[in-house]
Amino acid sequence: VSATRDDSGKAVTLGIVNRHREDAITTTIKVGGSAPILSATAHEVNGDDPKVLNSFDRPDAVVVQDRQLTASGTTVEITLPAHSVTVVRLAL
Amino acid sequence: MGTGTIDEAQAWVEYCNGTSNTYWANLRRKNGHEEPHNVRYWGLGNELYGGWQLGQMAAEDYVKRGREYAKVMKLTDPSIELISCGQNGWDDWDRVVIDGLAQIVDYHSIHIYTGHDDYYRNVFEPHQAERAIRVCSAFIEQARYNLRITRPIGIAYDEWNIWYRTRTPEGRKGGLEEQFDLSDALAVATYLNIFIRECERVPIANLAQMVNVIAPIFTRPDGIFLQTIYHPLRLYAEYAHAIALDPPSSATPTPCRPMRTPGHGRNGSRTWGRSSCWT
User: Fold this and answer.
1) Is the separation of the CB atoms in A15 and B247 below 8 Å?
2) Could you confirm whether B159 is annotated as catalytic?
3) Using CA atoms, how far apart are residues A56 and A53, in angstroms rounded to an integer?
4) From the candidates A2, A41, A77, A92, which should be mutated to test the interface with B, based on the most B CB atoms within 10 A?
5) SS3 at position A2
6) Which domains are seen in chain B, by residue range?
7) Which of A47, B99, B157, B186 lies at a 20 to 30 A Cα distance from A16?
8) Is A65 within 8 Å of chain B by CB?
9) Chain A environment of B190 (Cβ under 8 Å)
10) Is 60 exceeded by the pLDDT of residue A48?
């Protein structure tokens, strides 16, 4: 896991790797302080299985899929699928 | 430094950064660049510990030569920042070089590539590089203490990636165009997380190759495709911010499968040891 923020403290980005080969992980992200999460966006890198690769024949076997998450106050729940990288952007 | 001379090193700095009426600065102007290029970072040689380099030398000899190169380069342009040539961060070479050159360099370079056909080994190996970073940083701190150096000296992790398929003598016969799978993208994201967490110790980290050779972008005359590792690189480049946080986690550490105990790989490189890590 890594976390960064901008100078204003209103934009936070998390980088999360779920390296479990079979299992998804559902977890809760909680930001400190009282500022609620106004929006949460997940950018997920994943593919059918860990050995899949991109090629001229199949350039989109591994791509990024974007989705909105539903935040609740200062927390947001997220499910990280097996063998995935997820970059989560929070606006506070 | 391997095949070059101290005169060439001086000439390069003068050609790139010189502002006076001197031979090499004038040659740059004649070549169409009136203003200096202002090259700020200069590495003192590349992988000179390695048998694959022309001019391979012992660490003690590298320190002696490096000090003289550094002297003349700094005399030519005192504003440049020098990078000593390290190995993997925690080798004897690193300790000798850091002790010998800490007084004149601003960064110490390390190169580590990881990668393995076994899934869990592949995705966890970057944590062994993180250990090397911490040991290297301890070498640096010890040298700063012993030599009373008040300015910081950072690690320049200026070659890193996943690389194992095209690394062996047989594997590289077809070229160095590593084909990255999804597990490699996970390992790359793990490296990026490490660089964010270790940003105080590692102010510089970069891929050495961008296209085709051990690289995120694959091209041929009629087109390109983006390798798996391109995607985490793009996401972190676009969305990571300038200030690193230290997020506490209530998760328990995931025990890794034990790896083979240290031995020697085909190129005499050490294989990585056993590991237990945070996700």
Assistant:
1) no
2) yes
3) 10
4) A2
5) strand
6) 6-244 (3.20.20.80)
7) B157
8) no
9) 17, 19
10) yes
- Interchain CB distance below 8 Å, A19 and B186: yes
pLDDT reported for residue B170: 86
Give me A50's structure tokens. 């860990």
Burial class (CB in 10 A: 0-12, 13-18, 19+), B180: buried
Does residue B199 belong to the interface with chain A, where contact is any CB pair within 8 Å? no
Strands A63-69 and B204-205: unpaired
Query: What whole-number distance in Å separates Cα of residue B21 and Cα of residue B32?
Result: 15
- Continuous segment of H or E residues that includes residue A44: strand A39-46
Q: How far, in Å, CA of B98 to CA of B59, rounded? A: 10
Residue where the block lists tokens 């299985």: A49
Residues 6+ positions from B224 with CB-CB distance below 8 Å: B217, B218
The average pLDDT across B58-75 equals 98
Determine contact: B180 vs chain A, CB below 8 A: yes
pTM, two decimal places: 0.91
The answer to whether A21 and B257 are in contact (CB under 8 A) is no
| pLDDT tens digits for range B237-246 | 999 999 999 9
Average pLDDT (A16-42) is 96
Check whether B259 has a pLDDT greater than 60: no
Residue B24 — φ and ψ, nearest 5°?
-75, -35
B178 catalytic residue (yes or no): no
By the CB < 8 Å criterion, does B186 face chain A?
A: yes
